[in-house]
Design a protein that fits this description.
heterotrimer, A mainly alpha (about 290), B mainly alpha (about 425), C alpha/beta (about 270), B: about 425 residues, two-stranded antiparallel ribbon, 18 helices, about 0% strand, C: about 270 residues, 9 strands, about 20% strand
């Protein structure tokens, strides 16, 4: 049963990240996603210190706001300080992450996180943190409910805003011209990424979130040319990596999050080579057949 | 306070070692990082930094020890592989570079974490301290470790010193470098190797996760102070060294703390201070400039009014009351008084009992502004084909801005005309 | 009442100055265009042609002046304006079909919660037919040729059923057949009283294609009916090299971080 809970949690995280990741990579914002996932750390620690526990909604909101703040900061350095984009991203998130780690070190006793854990989470402990209803029923691990809710919210967000997200990703100039606010949807998307990052943090840590944001989406992009299908395939790739990674970690007795990230890499590589539409092998075969038919 | 003095007296040889080590590592990383900054490839450094973790673990697994030589070797190999992977993915598929970087970064790091945790669980005594590579521990830089890392750092610095010109040229104008016959591919290869090397040794102090900061932030900070590459390199290395020194200090007073985050916080503070206070490019400096521009505009607008009134009454040195001036052009009364007093201090006007008049200098300056205004209006209407009723606002701005040589150019192009589009005479200096 | 509407200018631009990175790239432009004309904007590289239409559509901030479309401000008439951007401005590897892209033209009419309905799809397919691409409706845009990409963009613009169309270099890199097809379509549109404004790069075809021309080189050189405006003298002034002094002053404005207008000095950072 524990296996199931862990895999379910990981799959929920993977799906949410995969969906958002599709938008991120098409907007060329993969590294901004990376930045946000690092930058929320001080917010999480502060929220922890203020509210005294992990359960509160305030943690999610406060830390999520820091994620949006990160986007502002990056833009600020780029526009006002005229710093080049890559450096704006790099300076912002490394600083925020460092602050977060220092806070953890200083308040080690009061904060139920340790610095290594923020990197790769403690998903193995998910089954231990159970919700018991006032009636005395064990309804399962808290993480499942948290991640499940986030997934539902994100799916709703994508469904409601599908046209606007689709258009602002493909052609922001045209979107502005017909009166759709590119800025609004940009910040909404960044907010969604922040919320997801924060919620996933304690199960899978900072680095794995990045892997799940980018790899499954990249995998799907190499397989299909239909955006809706891309969203589905990305989720599938994420879930497969979650399941495969979990059993791999159990076999090796190592970090589950690390194994899932590694599994993402494996799935990606398979698609990179063998994808029937854009894989290396297929392209090689296509050129061979084209030249031989001349 | 005692510990502060103890530390900075460098009496303790351990302290000396740790300081030398940290400073060498951070300074050399900062220098190499400046080149990635100039090539606009800062985030690639982040990818390399995360990718060296599996290499370190590999080095440990294969050698069974934490011998720095093996660890560096392993790190170097996976660091290089990550770069090749990013290039390959970007070139051979429709994925863009940022996606490739993020992908490689997180997957390689995940593999590294997996290996690290497996090693930790084996209970092999030799592995303790391997996880210091995550966030850095400058205090571990003693003895043989320091020697090896130190030598590599020195090699790095020498290489940069020797190839400085080539690296700079490549950053600015790759085509030109190619055209003059430089072996561009080899130079790039060398630079990339140096970057990987810098990362590999830098992580001892800063750790894998935050290594990117030491590559990027010193360069970003230095950028605010100068346009020149060699000055930028110098400043970046100083900033890097300062942060390394702080890291060593932290390691001394709080041995349980990881040094990496503190080094990053220090270098980030340096960057923020540079961002605000650097002359010319800093925010404060620009605000001061804007304020001074505003003052110039207001001063000269007032002088213009004096001059216009002087034209009408054919005497430029008549005393005027503030009300007369405001009647001519609506100034805010408080602002007018501020300006008048400032002009008086600078010698452009003189006053007698709240009656103000131009001095000779004031007349000259007012005349110049009026002249440029009319000439510019003429230029816009005759040469730029702009409607006469649009040119006034433009001229109102340009009149305060034009430099003497552009002024001369303007006169020349228009051939010293007598009148502007509104039939006002153009006042030349006698 | 009908007459009044007919004499309403499609586009009115007054004293428009646009700056890029603080340097003015368009100085004090004044224009009035009647409805139902096919208008070509011509000028050398860097003359500000794309800048002009982007500023008109509110994609760039104005340093001075205003823009009116059908005597109203931009935000009031957005639904009547359509835009065909340059082909290179998007990544054609995007996972979308031709129909997906054309349907985007209907998004302005739908609100946040509505999906494209059957009526919208009908309009989209009809527009594809007008550009001769109905067979490609389900084709992935990554598989299109340059001319087909251009026609897809055009179909998207048509799907808006707008009254005024801005197009940025629609003939760049397309084959002769596509070019002819497009210009015929644009002709039909102006006959139906639509106004079409095109940034154009090929001087040879100007007299043949356009009713009116706007000749631009950082400032407005001339504009009006092609016959009387597209003269040797105007051409010489448009293409005769840039105004050095104007450019130098623009550079000075940028270097000194000078405000473009005195009022903005009072609020500037």
């Amino acid at each position: 049963m524990n296996d199931f809970y862990i895999i379910l949690t990981a799959s929920l995280v993977a799906s949410t990240c995969a969906l958002l990741g599709c938008f991120l990579i098409l907007r060329k914002m993969a590294m901004v996603g990376d930045a946000i996932s690092h930058a929320v750390l001080p917010g999480i620690v502060l929220a922890f210190l203020i509210s005294g526990s992990r359960d509160s909604m305030t943690m999610l909101i406060g830390a999520g706001l820091i994620g949006i703040l990160t986007t502002f900061l990056i833009e600020f350095f780029h526009k006002k300080a005229k710093l080049q984009t890559d450096a704006s991203i790099g300076v912002t998130f490394t600083w925020l992450f460092a602050v977060g780690v220092v806070l953890i070190s200083i308040f080690a006793g009061k904060v139920d996180l340790d610095q290594d854990c923020v990197l790769y989470g403690e998903i193995a402990y998910v089954p231990l943190d159970i919700i018991i209803t006032p009636g005395g029923d064990n309804i399962g691990p808290r993480a499942i409910y948290v991640m499940g809710s986030i997934l539902i919210v994100i799916v709703l967000f994508i469904i409601i805003g599908y046209k606007e997200l689709f258009l602002t990703t493909f052609d922001p100039a045209y979107a502005s011209a017909i009166g759709i606010s590119t800025t609004l949807w940009h910040y909404l998307l960044m907010g969604a990424v922040s919320a997801t990052t924060v919620a996933s943090f304690e199960s899978v840590g900072a680095i794995l979130v990045v892997a799940l944001l980018i790899a499954p989406a990249a995998t799907a992009y190499l397989i299909t040319d239909n955006f809706k299908l891309m969203l589905v395939i990305a989720c599938a790739a994420g879930i497969i990596s979650a399941i495969g990674g979990y059993y791999f970690a159990v076999w090796l007795d190592g970090s589950i999050a690390g194994a899932i990230a590694a599994a993402c890499g494996v799935v990606f590589t398979l698609a990179f080579i063998f994808s029937p539409t854009h894989g290396l092998l297929f392209r090689r075969l296509k050129t061979v057949s084209e030249t031989s038919s001349l | 306070m005692n510990t502060f003095l103890e530390f900075f007296s460098f009496a303790d040889p351990n302290v000396r070692f740790v300081v030398i080590g940290s400073v060498l590592l951070t300074a050399s990383s900062a220098i190499v990082g400046t080149f990635t900054f100039l090539h606009k490839k800062s985030l690639v450094g982040d990818a390399i930094a995360h990718a060296v973790l599996p290499g370190i673990c590999l080095g440990f697994i294969l050698s069974g020890t934490k011998n720095p030589v093996y660890l560096i070797l392993g790190a170097f190999v996976t660091g290089w592989i990550s770069l090749i992977a990013v290039e390959f993915i970007t070139k051979r598929s429709r994925l863009k570079e940022d996606t490739a970087i993020g992908l490689v970064l997180s997957v390689f790091f995940g593999i590294g974490i997996l290996m690290l945790t497996v090693i930790q669980k084996t209970g092999n005594a030799a592995q303790s301290g391997l996880d210091h590579f995550l966030f850095g521990k400058a205090a571990a830089l003693v003895g043989e470790d320091l020697l090896v890392f130190g030598i590599v750092a020195v090699i790095l610095l020498i290489a940069v010193f020797l190839l400085f010109k080539e690296f700079s040229l490549l950053a600015f104008d790759k085509d030109y470098a190619q055209a003059i016959g430089l072996p561009v591919k080899w130079i790039q290869l060398t630079l990339t190797s140096l970057i990987v090397l810098a990362v590999v040794i830098g992580i001892q102090a800063v750790g894998v996760v935050l290594m990117a900061a030491i590559l990027i932030t010193p360069a970003a900070a230095a950028r605010f102070w100068t346009n020149k590459i060699n000055v930028m390199l110098f400043m970046a290395s100083i900033f890097g060294a300062l942060s390394g020194l702080s890291g060593a200090y932290i390691s001394y007073i709080a041995p349980a703390m990881p040094t990496g985050p503190w080094i990053v916080i220090v270098i980030s503070m340096i960057a923020f201070i540079s961002f605000f206070f650097a002359p010319k490019r800093g925010v404060i400096s620009r605000m001061i400039r804007q304020s001074s521009i505003r003052k110039t505009i207001n001063d000269e607008n007032v002088l213009k009014v004096f001059y216009n009134l002087g034209e009408e009454s054919r005497n430029f040195f008549v005393q005027r009351t503030p009300e007369e001036i405001i009647r001519r052009r609506k100034f805010d009364e408080e602002m007018l008084y501020t300006v008048l007093h400032r002009l008086e201090r600078q010698g452009y006007v003189e006053q007698t009992a709240n009656h103000w008049a131009l001095t000779e200098e004031g007349k000259t300056r007012g005349q110049r502004v009026v002249k440029i205004h009319r000439l510019w209006e003429l230029y816009l209407t005759t040469h730029v084909n702009i409607a006469p009723d649009h040119v006034h606002d433009d001229a109102d701005t340009i009149e305060h801005l034009l430099t003497p040589d552009l002024e001369a150019e303007l006169e020349r192009i228009l051939n010293f005309p007598k009148e502007d589009p509104h039939k006002s005479e153009i006042p030349y200096r006698k | 009442m009908d007459n009044e509407i007919q004499f309403q200018p499609a586009l009115e631009i007054h004293d428009l100055t646009v700056a890029f990175d603080r340097k003015p790239v368009l100085w004090n432009i004044d224009l009035k265009l009647p409805q139902g004309k096919l208008v070509g904007i011509i000028g050398p590289n860097g003359a500000g042609k794309s800048t002009l239409i982007k500023a008109t559509m509110g994609l760039l901030p104005l340093s001075s002046g205003f823009v009116k479309l059908f005597d109203q401000s931009l935000d009031d008439v957005r639904k009547r304006i359509s835009y065909v951007p340059q082909r290179e401005s998007v990544d054609w590897d995007f996972p979308a079909s031709v129909l997906d892209v054309v349907l985007m033209g209907r998004y302005g009419k739908l609100g946040l919660f509505k999906r494209p309905r059957k009526a919208d799809r009908d309009v989209a397919l009809d527009c594809l037919k007008k550009v001769g691409m109905e067979a490609y409706a389900n084709r992935q845009i990554s598989q299109l040729s340059g001319g087909q990409q251009q026609r897809t963009f055009l179909a998207r613009a048509l799907a808006q059923q707008a009254d005024i169309y801005f197009m940025d270099e629609p003939f760049a890199g397309v084959d002769a057949a596509t070019e002819k097809a497009i210009i015929d379509l644009l002709r039909n549109m102006t006959e139906a009283k639509k106004t079409v404004i095109v940034v154009h790069h090929d001087l040879q075809s100007v007299t043949q294609y356009f009713d009116w021309v706007i000749m631009l080189n950082t400032r407005l050189v001339a504009y009006g009916p092609t016959l009387s405006t597209f003269t040797q003298q105007n051409l010489q002034e448009t293409y005769g090299g840039k105004l050095t002094l104007l450019s130098d002053v623009g550079d000075l404005i940028r270097r000194e971080s000078f405000p473009n207008r005195e009022e903005s000095a009072k609020k500037a950072l």
